[in-house]
Amino acid sequence: MTIEYATRYRRASRIPAEPGRPYFIEKGEGDRAHLFGDLITIYAGGEQTENTFNFFTVEGPKGDLIPAHLHPDTHEVFYITAGAVRLFVEDTEGNQQEKLLTPGDFGFVPKNCPHAYRMERHHSQVVGVAAGPGGTFERFFENLGAPAEQLGLPSEPVIPAPGRFASVPERYDVRFLPDHQWRTR
Amino acid sequence: MTIEYATRYRRASRIPAEPGRPYFIEKGEGDRAHLFGDLITIYAGGEQTENTFNFFTVEGPKGDLIPAHLHPDTHEVFYITAGAVRLFVEDTEGNQQEKLLTPGDFGFVPKNCPHAYRMERHHSQVVGVAAGPGGTFERFFENLGAPAEQLGLPSEPVIPAPGRFASVPERYDVRFLPDHQWRTR
């Protein structure tokens, strides 16, 4: 039996509209969004956790380094479940590190630390948790990109209109750093 | 280069003692604990996230149903990365569900919902997040069980002394339900 719910985010979601209800979601069937070449799938958001945490996956093709950014009030987990992902991070004193992460490896990016990543194999997948005292921001991806109904990666990259970059990231605690340089290699 | 830190929990941990520092942990090298036949590995705890969330894995052999319990103030994620795990959960109105979860499948257990699980294949692994407005409780496992230095599953099950059940679970927002019955089959 598959139960779908109408929520404020989707006409048909596997995430119950009311908090406090247990639920299961099979692989890939969370709330999906496309941003650039990636598929983001939300399995739990702030509504489920009294705004303490969320849980989502990001899947993508082998590709370019995403733009450097930071979150003023959000701590972020990168846990690799498939492929290989190179994570770049800078601490608040300006020290930079990078590391190639493979399945089972973990990276932690505290708030205010600039970071970026690059999928280095096709079919890479990252499990993410992104939250802080100010809340959770899992709906960033579908607001900068677009909600998706179908399963799988976007068939064409979803490129946000330029005006979206001026308004959307700030609402979701995302600050892009267009002049940032990685000096790790 | 591998950096180890002396923390309040371990003489040598891959988790930095001070919050606010980015870090990487390779597969299996988080703070390890044994409880019964399982290996619990903590990759991030409340200190890293201003007490908003944690991130850990539980690995175990094919085995018995663990005792039913609930968390009065903690929401919990079960995300399967290896093997097969049957999750049992009851909502606050007494409705029970169970589902066999395989890699990529997700289960959400809100606070106050009785739950239990059974590893149904050897080498199963669950990624967990367990947190709520009252904090995070990732050190439960090593306080009821024992911290571990070695990698891998316990060579002998770590059985807590009976007196530990009277004092430890309550401190970590765990309430065992010894008379609970699963009626799902």
UniProtKB/TrEMBL annotation, chains A, B:
Any one Pfam family match given in the protein's UniProt record, by short name: Cupin_2
Chain segments annotated as transmembrane: none
Superkingdom assignment: Bacteria
Domain (Cupin type-2) ranges: 60-119
Gene Ontology MF: a single term: dioxygenase activity
Keywords tagged on the record: Dioxygenase, Oxidoreductase
InterPro entries hit by this protein: Cupin_2 (IPR013096), QDO-like (IPR053146), RmlC-like_jellyroll (IPR014710), RmlC_Cupin_sf (IPR011051)
Stated name of the protein: Putative Quercetin 2,3-dioxygenase
